[in-house]
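queue> holo job accepted (adenosine-5'-triphosphate)
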Amino acid sequence: MRRFPLADAARVRRWIIDTALANKAAFAVTLGCFAASTVVGLIAPRLLGHLLDVVVAGTTVETIDGLALAFLAVLIVQAVLLRYARLRGIMLGEKLLASARRGFVAATLRLPLATVESTSSGDLMSRATSDVDKLDEGLSKAVPEILVATVTVVFTAVAMLLTAPLPALGMLIAVPVFVVAVRWYRPRMRTAIDVELASAADAQAAIAETVDGGRVLDQLGRAPRRITVNALVLGVLRPNGRNQARLIGAFDAGAELAYVLPLLAILFIGWWSYQSGLVGIGALAAVVLYAQALSDPLYELLKWVDELMTGSAALRRILGVEQLRADHEDTARPNPRPEGHEVRLQGVRFGYREGHEVVHGVDLEIAEGERVVLVGPSGAGKSTLGALIAGVYEPTGGSVRIGGVPVTELGLERIREQVVLLTQEQHVFSASLRENLAMTESGSADEPMLAALRTAGLGDWLGELPAGLDTMISGGVTDTDVDGAVTVGAARAQQLAMARLVLADPRIVVLDEATSLLDADSARELDRSMAATLAGRTVIVIAHRLGAARSADRVAVVEGGRITELGPHTELLGQEGAYARLFQRWSAGAR
Ligand code: ATP
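queue> job finished
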């Protein structure tokens, strides 16, 4: 299956700059606190160097006590400042994460359904879960740690240059070693991390599918084969992990060299400068202490840069979903308003896969307010036609127009305003009944919700609910309470979807087996109570129960991806063709 794309470097950069600008005050405070704690921390080696100088020159116990107390005070102030800076850093990280999460959820919810269907669900799920966790780790831990370490390294280097410039120049030897090591390491590690995250997504999808289909696999005796499939997917992770360990090992060796070489150079130049009388023993001791003090922040920097690389790879995956939406909207043409609500299909062709067309040039005009029922054998293409009318898929040939405007030009928002597609499977969210109904803008007031529930035949059920609209409900197979929530069975979920439809108030409705799970009497009852609501709207019904065809304005028989008969029920019966045969068969079965 297809994967979502990775965001390009420009988009990631733009996100970072936009987010940093939006939080510039918080950034400034955090950075200021880190800088203050580092400056205070730098006083300690200077105090020690001074202590050495006064001891060599000869001093009193009081001076030594005073310096020791000052040393202690510096450490305490530094610890307090550092703690506060870290706290601010973590809070900032959480803020950035929340903004990335919000963008991701908004982008995902606005993705075209066809894109979601044709892309690996494991890929999307892992971006929403494990990648967000990795970004969390990167933002709330790596960013503050890297800030501390960078500020410490920079300020320590400046302090070394100010204390004893000549020996401090020995640090420069680290620069070429670091540059070479980083240039070698970064691209290799980035590729390895991309592979790791993508394989982890595949593994998550494979495991989730195995769990979902566990019973079927067991019944068919296919468990061993499935274990092999999972092992193959997981198998990619192991060599990639080994590769990452090798890269880290080689980079650590380079980093070690970049630390040891300057220390040797500082000692060597320092010893020579001291001999030549260019630097005092106190200043030299302070520079060596500074150089040693660099080892911790450098180590932290390297450790957290790895985490940050993982976080940024996760960010590229998370922003990739937004990029897909942005690309889709960029290619969407201007957003015209349809004139009226008639539906016109002209030479419509469609295939789910290339070279496998399932709709072969369908022409159909449905007038505003007309009710057309699509009937035909299983697999004929009825649901596909319904989804094409609802703009779920783009036709590969011909056009589907609503009020004269091709659905491809309408834009997602407007299509969803105009057309509602109800299919057989309806989702019940684990939330209050009110939240389940308020999926549409107009569903916020109580009275329309109660009226919609009554129209959908749920008036009696509502009366039985302990807290009315505030009753917690969840999807399930029985009508028993689980964990305090009232479980809503699949048939009742279809009625709930009808109530949502009433609240959404679209002008065009596609009902694809929307009441198929109700028993025949309940379905008839629901049809009757919905009749007033649907009157005046353009309605396309896909039904196996041909009783629905009797009340339709016209019936379209779909066979093999084509419309083979079209006309009112009585007229088609009189033709004694495919529809007459289908209807006779259905009537015999229904009796
Ligand atoms: P039914 O009455 O059983 O729902 P239908 O007339 O609605 O059938 P469609 O569901 O539109 O028929 O299917 C038309 C063809 O497209 C069938 O061959 C089906 O296997 C194929 N098809 C449907 N959905 C998909 C999909 N998501 N991916 C690939 N092929 C699909």
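queue> DSSP finds 24 helices and 14 strands in the chain.
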